[in-house]
Structure prediction request, 400 residues.
Amino acid sequence: MIIRNLYLERLRDFYHSDLVKVISGIRRCGKSELIKQIQAELRSQGILESQIIYLNMEEMSNIRFQDPVYLNESILKASADNPKTYLFLDEVQFVEQFERLINSLRSTGRYSIFITGSNSTLLSGKLATLLTGRTMTIQMYPFTFFEAAELSGISKSQEADFFLDYLKWGGLPQRFEFTNEQSRMIYLEDVLNSIVYRDVMVDLKRADKTLTERLLAYMYENTANIFSDHSICEQIRQQMENAGKNKIYELIERIEQAMLVQKCRRYDIQGKQVLVSLEKYYCTDLGLRSAMHINSKPDYGKLLETMIYLELKARGLEVYVGKTYKGEVDFLVVEQNQRRYVQVAWSLAQDTTQEREFGAFTPIPDNFPRYVISNDREDYSQNGIRHLNAIEFLMHRIEF
Prediction:
């Protein structure tokens, strides 16, 4: 078992707070295990078992609790004798009107509430309105390369091979139980189909499955490329002439809400504003990309860029595509009032590649740190711009 410290460190100060702790993430990324780790830490602090209530709302044995009135009565009864109760509701979106339930329990001041969900809209709509300023949220991701290497007991001499393994099979925790490629593929296909049917196509006709798969395959094949929803729509309509624009736009939104992809918005560095067009989409797990059976030759530069993006997000950082008047910088990373600029390339061996990657920073007027991350072991740092080896960065051996 791997302790998910990337997330626990951000949550620990809030364990006993009346702020609602919201944990979202793609299915099978480890949200339920994180909850167990939080509960274990609470017990180590002296919290009694009777003070902890845990319910997974997706389990058939708990289907009766999807009625909010019954669930509310059950929680109040089970916690009646506790001065403080730690309430964990896993996959809370299955509870009808869960927003009102959570707000009602929170308002009593007797509960520390933790909720998880597999939909990025968990905090939108009613819950956002009812709980404005009363939540702290984190988004979970599959195992990072560091976590995966720790789980697999990888030595330093094995890291290069394991790096390629991760680029293909990603970091969903359960995939590490399987040692051969066929078993891994079967598992990842099952996960992908589960998310597509239960989170994307819910309430849609089965006839939309082909369109959904075509759309998702296109977005996964073009991970880390800049495009607009309109350009995605036009590409799909060239392949499927009968596909309606509104349906495609709806499916793009559902795919993003199901966290199969992550949208990275562009930020105008000179104008200091977030732009609303020409975003990048990154697949949330590289193993799910392999499960799409994309036939084109892998672009390792784009896969590495995806891997770095997911690492930055797992660290809790705010990430944008940086727009300059001459082009783009792969990542503008924001942490409090500090900025960092990052370019990602598979190899810097060619002079032209060095000129392109290091030259991307030239139009940026400020003096915040600048990095180029690549798979090279040779140090190509120049002109105050640091070159970082990807594995060393991902293994947290380099200050960033």
